[in-house]
Amino acid sequence: EQASTKAELKKSVYDENAFALAEGKRLFRWYNCNGCHANGGGSYGPPLIDAQWIYGHEPENIHETIVQGRPNGMPAFGGRIPENQIWQLVAYVRSMGGLIRADAAPGRADGIHPLEPESRREFSPPRPAPRPDPTP
Fold it and tell me: Rounded to whole angstroms, how far apart are CA atoms 34 and 133?
């Protein structure tokens, strides 16, 4: 139960903080997450703006993905990115999927991506997707 409370605290601290979300957006570009996730639309990495999240859409799921990596391409960034920056990235990734309150989500330059800005996306809970087979 304590881990759940800790995750909820992290969620509220970052998901509801416009500055943390804006920093997450900046870090998403800084760490070249765009290189695989193509502004959230997916490329080598899965899309972050759709309704299917393979490993879950909760903050602790996304945090685990960033820290430990995932089979078939997502590298582990634990120990390379400071913990507070990981939580900022988590919050921003959630905003890309419309999982953050619109008044806290960052805006985006319309020339970057043809989709609605994060702050204007409708909330729609992600659907579970099948996990990829870790064996090539």
Answer: 24
